[in-house]
Amino acid sequence: MSDRRRFSPEGEPLDEAAAPPKESAEGSTHTPAREAVHEGAAVGGDSGHRREPMEMALPEASFELLVVSLGMQARMELGPGGDEEGASPNLDLARHTIDLLAVLQQKTKGNLTLEESRLLENSLTELRFRYVQRVEEINQRAKT
User: Is the pTM of this model over 0.70?
Assistant: First the structure.
C-alpha cells in the first residue's frame, strides 16, 4: 500500500511528480490523481459511474478567486435586476454570502496587498448596493 496523502504533516503540498507512478494490473502506469478517475471514483460522491478526467484545468487557488467566487455567488442569489425575467432572488442567502465577504475583510485586515484589499472593498460595496436595490424593487412591486 502506498501513501496517497497530498500534503506533508506541515501542510505543504507534496510533489506528485517526485513520487514514482504506480503500475496497475494491466501494466500501465497511473499517477495517484488519475488513479481515482480510472477506478470510477466520482467527485462529490460515489455514484459508481466512471468519469473522464477534466479537460479544463482548474484555476490556481488564490484570495482573488475566493473573493470573485463569493461575489458571483451573491450576484446569482440576488437574481436578475429590473424587469428581467428569471429565478426569484434568495435575499437571505445573498445577505449571508455578503456577510461572509465582510467577515473575510475583517479577519484579513492589514494582511492584504493593496490590490486584494481594493478587490474585496469594491466587491462588498457593489454587492451591498445591489442588495439594497433588489430589496427596494421587491418592495415597490409589493405595493403595486
Answer: no
